[in-house]
Amino acid sequence: MSASLLERRLSWSGWLIASGLAVELAVSTLVHPLAFVAFAVVACPLVVAGILLFLWALVTS
Amino acid sequence: MTRPDILLAVFAGMAALLAVFVALRAEITRARGGKILAFGALCVLPVLSLVGGYSTQMEQAQSTAFCLSCHVMSDHGRSLLLEDPSYLAAAHFQNNRVPRDRACYTCHTDYTLFGGVNSKLRGLRHIYIHYLRTEPAPAQIKLYTPYNNRECLHCHEGARSFEEQSAHNRTPEAIGSIKSNTLSCTSSRCHDTVHDVAALAEEKFWNGATLP
């Protein structure tokens, strides 16, 4: 795999993780059922997708 | 927010900033140090942040404030402050038989292996009904399944006040029926006044406590 493709995937992974963690941060200040749902349905999938993309980029490089 | 929650938030914030840094400067991974940094920023720190966030969310989801943050639950919350000691929920809340900051969860979770998970799934069902279906009026809200004595017995079983209570021993088989859940604690004209929010307008309230 070319370095630029690997770096592009790492970059995407970073953005996914950062956005997931930003959602996690935002909802951590709220005590409300929708905050729980946002964490479970938005933050977790974004961070997990970013981690999986990072690992996939590593094993396919 | 408690101090651990603040620390977790700071940790998640730093992890997010590092992830942004790697996203903006992915070329740093050409060097060995950059590879190590990327592994930390894109794998180790996010996993730790997620575990911490999960723990915080699960903790918050057990709080009385969490349950009462939905408008539809406000009457059930007010029923915890009723003056009349025959109201089961109020008697438990006011006499610290349940922790006040976890009053709802303490009685409404299942004390089984996956009780916590079941509680969260029920909570998601509440949200589904609240936002996507027509929710009943507070006085019409009912449990999805009949209340199981197991939840009462989790605390009361073995307690002298429970075991030697005359009403619980009015027949030789009564206490066995209670323990096997064939005679419900919350029906059978025993402890059947629990929240009874339909009657709130005519009742007096205790001023000795506030809702969390």
Please describe the topology of this protein.
The complex is a heterodimer of chains A (61) and B (212).
Chain A: H1 3-28, H2 33-60
Helix pairs in contact in A: 1-2
Chain B: H1 3-24, H2 32-60, H3 64-68, H4 74-78, H5 88-94, H6 103-108, H7 115-132, H8 149-156, H9 160-163, H10 174-179
Helix pairs in contact in B: 1-2
Would you give an account of this structure?
The complex is a heterodimer of chains A (about 60) and B (about 210). Chain A is mainly alpha-helical. Chain A has 2 helices and no strands. In chain A, α1 runs antiparallel to α2. The N and C termini of chain A lie close together (about 5 Å). The mean pLDDT of chain B is about 90. At the A-B interface, α1 and α2 of A face α1, α2 and α7 of B.
Please supply descriptive tags for the structure shown above.
heterodimer; A: about 60 residues; mainly alpha; 2 helices; about 0% strand; B: about 210 residues; 10 helices; elongated
Brief digest:
The complex is a heterodimer of chains A (61) and B (212). With 61 residues, chain A is mainly alpha-helical.
Query: Helical content of chain A, roughly?
Result: over 70%
pLDDT averaged over residues of chain A: 92
Enumerate the spans of chain B where pLDDT stays under 50 for 5 or more consecutive residues: none
Number of strands of chain A: 0
Order of helices and strands of chain A: HH
Shape of chain B: elongated
Give me the number of helical elements of chain B.
10
Cα distance spanning the termini of chain A: 5 Å
Largest sheet of chain A: none
From the helix content, strand content and strand pairing of chain B, which structural class follows? mainly alpha
- Which of globular, elongated, flat, extended, rod-shaped describes the shape of chain A? elongated
The pLDDT mean of chain B sits at 92
Determine the strand fraction of chain A and express it as a percent band: under 5%
The percentage helix of chain B is 40-55%
Q: Which regions of chain A have little confidence, pLDDT < 50, spanning 5+ residues? A: none
Order of helices and strands of chain B: HHHHHHHHHH
Major beta sheet of chain B, specifics?
none
